[in-house]
Amino acid sequence: VSILVMNGPNLSRLGKREPEIYGSLTLDDINRGLADAFPEVTFEFFQSEYEGALLEKLFELEDRGGCSGVVLNAGALTHYSIALRDAISAVIMPVVEVHLSNVHKREGFRRTSVISEVCVGVIGGFGADSYHLGVQDLLKRVEKE
Ligand code: DQA
Fold first, then answer.
1. pLDDT tens figures, 87-143
2. How far is the CA of 97 from the centre of ligand 1 (A)?
3. How many A from CA of 76 to the centre of ligand 1?
4. What's the CATH code of the domain at 80?
5. Structurally, how many domains does the chain consist of?
6. ipTM (interface pTM)
7. Which of 22, 37, 64, 116 is the most buried (most CB within 10 A)?
């Protein structure tokens, strides 16, 4: 089982960035936590501040034969990137949308996600556990295949 954990803009700043909202773990801590919790999974971890780099990553992976699925925290791109939405619908791999914070408890603009419709599900508000729940869902999907 191979899973891509992909993070968009500003998630490289975790640990320093608004810890009262996003917690004190760094992105490396979160990624290490996933690798420790799911030793049977081959993870690929990718983060970029750039929209296009996220699209390229999805396409590059798809062209290599794909993976079991993608856990994606698209950051603010969630709320407006039609390009990211189209890329998710262009690939066969299932994509789980995750958020550290509960986006429904915050500013109104965060309540809109343009990617949810093309993702298999949405998990938010559980901090690093949101990623773990995303991986669990993808593992269940692989079992059912
Ligand atoms: C986020 C929520 C987004 O609204 C925000 O722009 C982020 C992080 C989260 O993980 O809670 O960058 O995706």
1. 999 999 999 999 999 999 999 999 999 999 999 999 999 999 999 999 999 999 999
2. 11
3. 6
4. 3.40.50.9100
5. 1
6. 0.99
7. 22
Contact predicate 26/15, CB 8 Å:
yes
Give me the active site residues, please: 22, 99
73 is in an annotated binding site: yes
What is the domain extent for residue 119? 2-144
C-beta 12 within 6 A of ligand 1: no
pLDDT in tens, 16-35: 999 999 999 999 999 999 99
Residue 12 marked in a binding site = no
